[in-house]
Amino acid sequence: MGISVYYKPAVIIGDGGGDGGDASKFQKAFAETLAGTISSLGSDITAGISRIAIASIFASNSYLSYASFPDLINFASPVNPSTGTSRNATYAFYNCSNLLECHFPQLSFIMDNMFQSCSKLSIIEAPNVFGVSAGAFSGCSLLTSISFPLATQGSYAANCFYGCSKLQSVYMPYFCSIGCNFTGCSLLSEFRSFLIPQSSITNNMFYSTALSNIADIPAWSLAITIGDQAFGFTSVSELNFINCSSINGQSAMSSTLINVSLPIVETLVAYYHFASCSLLSQVYAPDCSTVGNYAFLNCKNLEKIELGLGRGGYIYTQAFSSCSKLSEIYMINYSTAICALNNQNAFSNTPMSNSTYLGHYGSIYVAPTLVNTYKAATNWAAYANRIAAAPESFLSKAVWPYQYYNSNTMTAIPSEKENVTAVHRLAFCNCQSLAAVSLSLCEYIGVQAFEQCYSISAVDLPQCKVIGKNAFQGCTRLLSANLPECLAINTNAFYNCQSLTTLNANKCEIIYSSAFGMCYSLSTVNLSKCKAIYSSAFASCRSLTSIDLPECLFVGGFAFAYCTTLESISLPKCVFLSESAFTSCGSLTSIDLPKVLNLFLYCFYSCSNLETAILPECLVVGQYCFASCSKLSSISIPKCRYISIAAFNNCSNLATISLPEVKVIDRAFVNCSKLSQVYLPSNKMVFLDNYSAFFSTPMSNSAYLGYFGSIYVPASLISQYQNDPVWSWYSSRFASISG
Q1: Which residues contact 685 (CB under 8 A, 6 or more apart)?
Q2: Which of 461, 542, 601, 736 pairs with 55 at a CA distance of 20 to 30 A?
Q3: Residue 286, Cα to own-chain centre: how many angstroms?
Q4: What is the average pLDDT value for the chain, to the nearest integer?
Q5: Do 178 and 202 meet the contact criterion of CB atoms below 8 Å apart?
Q6: Domains of the chain, start order
Q7: Band of the pLDDT at 108, cuts 50, 70, 90?
């Protein structure tokens, strides 16, 4: 493989020409590793190399056993000035079958499949990594531990640890994952280091691991969805996801399950969800409307199940077949459109069947008003002698799906329902005269339970743990919500409650997408225990002037966007701000975020009155993060290592910036018309990704601004900056930092 050097000391290995210089030693050593002459690339050989642009550069190199790159920042090419594009260097060490040890003290991102199939890799040191991508360590069968203390990003981390059969511990305390899984990590048993609540347990996430207790993974305890085979071949015995609304895929669960509690799950639609869970005895899923093919097939100890089957729902082929002890099925739903039975074999070889071979019979309990409807319905008629009205002692404990749906004259919750422990989906939906909700013992509010109840003015739920999706959406006269024990508030729960002024949810740990979006009057919020706020949760809350989130670790995309009167934010523990989190918060004047590690794109875009930003731990400033913050005059980012495209574009009042730890600057400061002093004190030359970084600033070579600025660097590096192919665009602006 031919390689050459673009420039030094910020050396890039790529396809183009260059002067060689300091990289000649590396080029020679690289060739020798291919030939098998040497097996080690130490820091004495690799020092000064900051980027490698060739995909698969070391792939399938069976001789390489040790690699140390003290200055390597990333495996990616620079932006091509003519096309504006860059190229990721994936599969860098793929299938290096004898690679034992790697050290990358400055590496910022582990690319796709970077160490895949490195079957002997046992040591990886990369303490400054902030992102891990798909397949990164797949098949690293001797890797026993992973520690990435700064990693906050894993958006496309599918299969990143797949087949790491010796992996026992993982430390990534701030990792936000979509797609990450630990399939085949048979020794992995604890996940206590995952601190940021996750919205989903993805496909195969813990498949064939040593996991035995869900309590070991608190970050996922309030997950909304559980993916395909998420807990397959584990030793999990209790499944209690109080906030889960959907289980997807096939064979999602462990065969060792004994009890399942899914109080707000809506569907179990895929094949074999709990098939052959031979120890499973009880299932509680009272909001579930559909059960898929073979969902509980051969659950030989299943005795009782509670479901909310009804309008639009189905029980599919052999859903409960061979559940030989199943004697009680409660499917309470007051919708006049009953649940469809796909065919008669759904209950074959159970006490529900007409055969007497089992020696006892079971009962299918339904809403009293629907007994005759079920007995006469297609396929249900075969079980007519098993269908009965649910006893009042059972019915009195909850408000069931559709029970009071569209009761327009109801002004108060019926007295017999005041002590219920749950209000299930659509129970009071569209009860337009209902004036208040006060339920002292209620623990769960289901999906759309009070949606479009326009007259509700107050909600008091002192014991409620979960508010389901769309539960109070469109309650336009609602003024206050008291939820002191609530742990999770789901998507759109209070969306468009335009009169809501006060929220007390002081124990709530997670708020999902658009939960309070367009609550235009919301001004007082108590969320003292909240750890994660997801996308658009408070978007367009135009009366919110301050937000205090002392325990919050994660703020999702657009979470507070367009909160035009928001003046102050307190996020002392937050480590991750997602895209556009505070976009167009025009009254925000200062931010102090002492723990934030990663600012994603457009975080503070167009915060037109923002003057001061203090970010002492921030490593990454994303695209357009502070763009169009026209009053920004002071920013402190002493540990920042990467400044992305247009991060400060149009910050027309920014005159001075110091970047002591920065490694890479992209097209970051375009149109900063007053930027006249840039300090780069590092004793290693900063990598400039694109020559247009300082266009339309006093740094540019154009004289149209009427004055010029200076880029201050160590005196020993001035000539190197001036001769660099990219920095040379600003060669006349360099000055000694020492004066």
Answers
A1: 9, 10, 713, 717, 720, 721, 724, 727
A2: 601
A3: 27
A4: 85
A5: yes
A6: 258-388 (3.80.10)
A7: confident
